[in-house]
Amino acid sequence: MAGGKEPIEVRFRLFDGTDIGPTKYDPSTTVSSLKEFILARWPQDKDIAPKTVNDLKLINAGRILENNRTLAESRVPVGEVPGGVITMHVVVRPPQADKNSGIADNFSPLFITFS
């Protein structure tokens, strides 16, 4: 397919280093749709599990991706290998024990190293 309409292959790296995918997506797929895919395929054996797409953040090349953006808009072509798989990191919001704790928007800390 010409003109940047080729499918984009993405894998999702979870907090413990396991992966969901890789799977090919149309460049017009929204980040919100990617999160729905992750929710549907979340491993059942994980202690931490998201309940909604709002419990997930996707990170690509150090940038948090916005739900309303498409995969094509969220790509960072610098450093990508043509035809290669893009790895996006998944951060999960921890369960909230007390809504009045004042830390409702915090996400679990995660150290990501790039080599």
UniProtKB/TrEMBL annotation:
Domain Ubiquitin-like residue range list: 8-76
- One matching Pfam family is Rad60-SLD_2
Q: Give a Gene Ontology cellular component term annotated to this protein.
A: plasma membrane
Q: What does this protein do?
A: May serve as docking site to facilitate the association of other proteins to the plasma membrane.
In its UniProt entry, what is this protein called?
Membrane-anchored ubiquitin-fold protein
The record's listing under InterPro entries reads: MUB, Ubiquitin-like_dom, Ubiquitin-like_domsf, UBL3-like, UBL3-like_ubiquitin_dom
TM regions (residue ranges): none
What SUPFAM superfamilies has UniProt attached to this entry? Ubiquitin-like
* Membrane topology category: Lipid-anchor
**UniProt cross-references to CDD domains, sorted A to Z:** Ubl_MUBs_plant
Compartments reported by the entry: Cell membrane
User: What is the protein's species of origin?
Assistant: Miscanthus lutarioriparius
| Keywords per UniProt | Cell membrane, Lipoprotein, Membrane, Methylation, Prenylation
- The answer, when asked if Lipoprotein is one of the entry's keywords, is yes
